Amino acid sequence: MTNKAGSGPDTGGVTGGKAEGWAEEAWRRSLVKTKVNARRIGANFPHASQGGTYTLEPPHWWTAGFWPGMLWLLCEGGGEAELREVAEACEARLDEVLDGYDKLDHDLGFMWILTSVANYKLTGSEQSRRRAFKAANYLMGRFNLQGGYLRAWNPWHEGEDNAGIAIIDCAMNVNLLYWASRESGDPRYRHVAEAHMRTVLAHFIRPDGSVRHIVRFDPETGAVAEYLGGQGYAPESAWSRGAAWALYGLALACHHTGRAEYADAAKRVAHFFLAQLPEDRVPHWDFRAPAETRHLRDSSAGACAASGLLLLDSLLPAAERGAYREAGERMLESLYAGYGSFDDPDEQGLILRGTSHYPERKNLDVPLIYGDYFFIEGLARLRGADMIPWE
After folding, report:
1. Domain 5-382 belongs in CATH node 1.10.1740.110
2. Buried/exposed 278-293: b ≥16 CB within 10 Å, e otherwise
3. Pure H helices in 165-298
4. Which position among 10, 161, 169, 298 bears the catalytic label?
5. Which residues contact 151 (CB under 8 A, 6 or more apart)?
6. How do the domains of the chain map onto residue ranges?
7. What is the pLDDT of residues 297-341, one digit of tens each?
């Protein structure tokens, strides 16, 4: 297992020793708290913390990869055997979903990039490699050729037709296909990933850099049928976690392909995102939500966007570097200083004040496992980690 902890953190020369000090402290405290959580949670699948305790979801739930993914990141930083054992046990439990097939949807990337791909990258496990390829093949099977998109959900209820639904979240899930293409040498995986990302550029990213959550296409012709609000306030609002998925997903598409149009779109989304932030740099749940709901933040959107900003900065010409990294660092530092639960032993979540699904009034103002994951990933980037699963 690779370990770069001994080489010291990568401060990037932007904020000097200040970032190094707080980031190393945050990493140490996160590791201590996660070790305690690992003994409490074990090989299960947490989603949102309620009353200080993470609620557990079944293995097919879309967030199943974030807990083991977080453990793998912390393993790389310190070679923690007890965390690796839990991460591997979670991955094994996901076989019932992968082999059962019926519960699989577009979230194959979230689930198997952070488990099997991470495991394979760190340990060389051939079993994990096979699992990741099986998941990638299922994800390719969701591609709609006419519309150039990966279909999102299966029908939630009998008779429901959502064959034309695509969502911005898949800007992250397509990275399973980029991995499969590079690992196998087969360009077909990459072709599907790029076709979907071209659709993201054409239909999800608005000229001002704000982002749509859901686009419904005619599944027979590929024509746009309508825009839907999804987890945002309204069809033309600006759900902050959707913007974070887009920012990070576009930066990753640039990383995998070298195409400048992805970096340019990522910058446009980043500029919109950063311009909307409140003074403490942690986003409201929807940048265009009405005033009476704007007390709700989404720390998970901030953590995800911060990791994307750090990657984006590294992809740009030298003359453009610095500002995006500094913005990502500032967001992570604010999450640590103002939203961390590290002094509360009765709270399992690391980062407070996430908003999962405001339209359904679910999991509001609570820690979310994906917020914790992206916070740890951002710290790992600052420390110069050898392995980031999406890459």
Report:
1. no
2. eeebbbbbbbbbeeee
3. 170-173, 175-184, 187-203, 240-257, 260-276
4. 169
5. 106, 142, 143, 144, 162, 163, 164, 165, 166, 219
6. 5-382
7. 999 999 999 999 999 999 999 999 999 999 999 999 999 999 999
Separation CA 203–CA 104 (nearest Å)? 25
Give the pLDDT confidence score for residue 152 in this predicted structure.
98
Residues 6+ apart with CB under 8 A from 310: 324, 325, 328, 329, 378, 381, 382
What is the reported pTM? 0.94
Beta bridge partners of 238: none
Rounded mean pLDDT of the chain?
Answer: 94
In what helix (H) or strand (E) does residue 150 lie, and over which residues does it extend? strand 149-150
Over residues 126-146, the mean pLDDT reads 98
- Mean pLDDT over 69-96 rounds to 93
Whole-angstrom distance, CA of residue 229 vs CA of residue 114: 28
Q: What is the pLDDT of residues 222-252, one digit of tens each?
A: 999 999 999 999 999 999 999 999 999 999 9
- Has residue 14 got a pLDDT over 60? no
DSSP track, 68-113: HHHHHHHHHHH--HHHHHHHHHHHHHTHHHHHH-TT--TTHHHHHI
pLDDT at 187 exceeding the cut of 90: yes
70, 373 contact by CB (below 8 A): yes
Q: At what angle do helices 126-140 and 187-203 cross, to 10 degrees?
A: 50
Q: Which of 149, 167, 165, 151 is nearest to 213 (CA)?
A: 167
107 is catalytic: yes
Q: Which of 107, 298, 313, 372 is catalytic?
A: 107
